[in-house]
Structure formats: C-alpha cells, structure tokens
Amino acid sequence: MEELPQLPPEVWVYVFSFLSTEEKHAVRTCCRYLRNLVDHPSLWRDYTVMLSDLRRYTYGFWETLQKRNLTRVAVRHLRRKEWRRLVILLPTLTAIVFMDGGRFYKQKYLDILTRFPNLRDLGVRNAAWNEPMLGRQLTQQHGEMYGLDTVRPVPRSVFHNLLLSLKKLKHLSWGMKGEPLELLPDDYFSPADPNQPGAARYDGPALTSLELVDYPENILSGNALTSLTSLRSLTVHYKYAREGKERRLGSWLEPLHQLETLTIIDPEV
Fold first, then answer.
1. What residues does 265 pair with on adjacent strands?
2. What are the coiled-coil residue ranges (predicted)?
3. How many angstroms separate the CA atoms of 63 and 70, rounded?
4. What is the pTM assigned to this prediction?
5. Which of 50, 77, 83, 234 is most enclosed, with most CB atoms within 10 A?
C-alpha cells in the first residue's frame, strides 16, 4: 500500500471505471483497500451476473454482490427453493433474465417474480412454461442487452396477471415462435383493473419501451397498443409480410404521443 499514489478514493473509482470486468477482478486481489474501492456500486451499475445452483456460492460471494448493489441477474437452472433464497439475498433486483435452455417451468415460478418489487426488466431465453392452464409453450427471450428472443403467446388472462403484478416494469420484449393458431385479442397488452370488472381502464405497468419480435403480419389488431400511451420507444421486428395484407403500424402509432424512438426491422425492405 505504501507504493500506491496518495489519491482520494473517488479518483481511484474514476480510474477503475475504465477497466474491464476481468481487470477489475485482478485489481481486487492486490489488497483489501483496492478491493473495497473496486466494489463501489458505481462501477457495477449496468453489470449482469450469471447465477446457477445457488448452493455453491459462499456468504462472501453474496456479500460482494450486496456491496456492489447489483440489481441485474441472469439465472440458469434455478429450482423453486433457490428462487425463494434469491428473493432474500437480492430483494432489490431490477432486471431478471431466465436462461434455462429447454427447462420447463410452471405458473408458480412466474408468481415468484412478484416478490421483487423493483423489477423493471424481464427476459427469458430458451426456457419454457408447460402448465395445463397455459395451454401453449412460452419461450420468450429478452431483446435489450441479451439478444433477440421469441415466444409463443401466453393466454391473455395469465399474461394480464403477470403485467398487473409487475407495476414497475419499464421494458418488455415480446415475440412469436411460429404462428399462433388464432389472432391475439385486442386487449392483449391492456390489462384492466381487476377491481372494476367491465371497465376498460388500463391498470398495467407504465411501459416506456416495447419490442415486438418476429411478428407475423396482422397477429395484433390496430388497437393493440391503444393503452400503452407512456411508450417512448417502440421496436418492431417483422417476421414476414403477407401479400395484400394491410399494415397495422399506422394505427399502433396514433395513440403514442410520447414516442421518441421508432425502429422497424422489415424482411421485405
């Protein structure tokens, strides 16, 4: 430590901000003083940690994540009991990505997500939900920072319950794998207030970013996004266009008065 330049801690933290993750971990091994500086939350603000089999992690590992105020995780092969442990150890998570290749989940795993009150970003890669009440298979993947994803539609009632539970959700990436047997309902993205049955008032999260991935033409009606007036960013990845079919994009945009960014990825262009 005597050979280190006598710099204020905030200067060291600024210097470390230019290091890669591997370099930060190398600096941590030098001494306790540098380890504490490298674990400053500002250096890990957008970092995502991959977790699997929580039993193998030590108390020191979780203490480090808590010290870094880590809020983004990607999980692989977690059992229900491990999810409950994750709620206790990292209750302030804002982003969760499922990365369980081919693993089958049930509705109860989605219910666990409601225990993370600050959750804003949700993604699923190569995972599936298989439950009689779901009917079809879900295989969603997150588009922001994790690559593009696809999903077969969850029934409206289940999807609405999920949206109603995640009030702080800001970004949603939703797509199709294959083509649904039927068109999606007009209010698929518009869960109503369950305490006011029959009312058309939107009661879901105030989404600011929506990504529609691999959408066959005309799967959503022209009124599909009417309730999402808080959107500032919309990305549409068209899977293909059917000849002679009317595009719905114009109708989608009409109510989105706060929209700042529009991205269209069209295979026909």
1. 237
2. none
3. 11
4. 0.56
5. 234
